[in-house]
């Protein structure tokens, strides 16, 4: 399958979604009560997540271009491994710090906040995938 500009709508859709969720309308999703938040570490985690996304994008490009899962440039493939490893190490460290400095962690509140943070993204991702598949297949099944 040859990639042409008809697939660029996916990137446009992601950009629009990112801009939409940064509006003040969705500010209730932002955490404001965490005094121990380490913004520089969160920023680093964002860059590491971008490494993983970039690697997956390259792999998907070659899947569409050559109909096979392969990564032609081995150096790019390391970005995902480094990104995932460091992302989870930093996440564990930040989570440990949060627990260390809280006298009595409220576990139910913690899990409810995690669920409310993750589940909407799962729904959004699922809907985005379904829409993408429908558009790519021209609604033919």
Structure description:
This protein has 141 residues and is mainly alpha-helical. The chain has two domains: 37-102; 106-141. Helices cover 71% and strands 0% of the residues. Helix 2 (39-66) packs antiparallel against helix 3. The protein is globular, with a radius of gyration of 19 Å. The mean pLDDT is 77.
As for the number of domains, it is 2
The topology string of helices and strands comes to HHHH
| Global outline | globular
SS elements, strand count? 0
Which percent range fits the helix content?
over 70%
Q: Which residues form runs of ≥5 with pLDDT under 50?
A: none
**Main pleated-sheet profile:** none
Strand content: under 5%
Structural class of the secondary structure composition?
mainly alpha
User: Distance N terminus to C terminus?
Assistant: 18 Å
Number of helices: 4
Rg computed from alpha carbons, rounded to a whole number of angstroms: 19 Å
Q: For the residues shown, what is the average pLDDT? A: 77
Characteristic terms for this protein:
2 domains; 141 residues; single chain; mainly alpha; 0% strand
Topology, please?
Blueprint: H1 8-21, H2 39-66, H3 74-101, H4 107-136
Helix pairs in contact: 2-3
In brief, what are we looking at here?
The chain is mainly α. The protein has helices at 8-21, 39-66, 74-101, 107-136.
């Amino acid at each position: 399958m040859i990639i042409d500009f008809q697939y660029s709508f996916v990137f446009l859709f992601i950009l629009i979604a990112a801009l939409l969720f940064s509006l003040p309308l969705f500010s209730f999703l932002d955490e404001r009560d965490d005094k121990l938040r380490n913004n520089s570490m969160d920023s680093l985690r964002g860059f590491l997540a971008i490494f993983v996304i970039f690697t997956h994008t390259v792999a998907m490009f070659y899947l569409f271009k050559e109909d096979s899962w392969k990564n032609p440039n081995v150096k790019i493939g390391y970005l995902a491994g480094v990104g995932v490893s460091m992302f989870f190490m930093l996440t564990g460290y930040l989570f440990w710090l949060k627990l260390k400095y809280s006298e009595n962690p409220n576990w139910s509140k913690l899990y409810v906040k995690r669920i409310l943070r993750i589940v909407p993204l799962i729904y959004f991702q699922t809907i985005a995938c379904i829409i993408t598949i429908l558009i790519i297949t021209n609604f033919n099944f």
